[in-house]
């Protein structure tokens, strides 16, 4: 039986953009060799208001990792591959999670796996990621503002921001919620979001997409000066 992996999202705030760009360019191979690591992506972040380059936040960078277990995740945090980011940051948010439900692919693989969804009463996180079809991008961008407006005012939302491997075309979101019920309420009862989901197949926005819901087991540190 395959064990349920441990997922971590680390977000670092930095003062110096140049060195951060260098770590983004050359750090993937170092991180990819860490013991017990199943999946990793160094990511840019942004406001997720429009999913265009003007959303980009060059002072916050993220690392999403999927580990075999808690021991591997903890040990990874003490390596220089991750420690170099930590030592250069002005703030760090670390969210540790376990997958509850996942569908779709990220760069051709399923990073989280499929497991019977257990009852979870604590905080939950949602991760979305999509590879846009270039010919459908304008249609997608026009659909974004109403959804973002609903998300920003959603009950139970604790933090939300954009994540992506590139400013255009490879984009996603991370959001943290006080409970699964609050996330479900937004996903299935917010009119603009429901309408956008229903349009996904007919609009053919995505060449690849992923949605994951995760149980949040620990939150430490700060993002934009506060702990969610």
From TrEMBL:
It comes from the Bacteria. It comes from Gordonia sesuvii. This is Monooxygenase. GO terms for molecular function: monooxygenase activity. Keywords: Monooxygenase, Oxidoreductase.
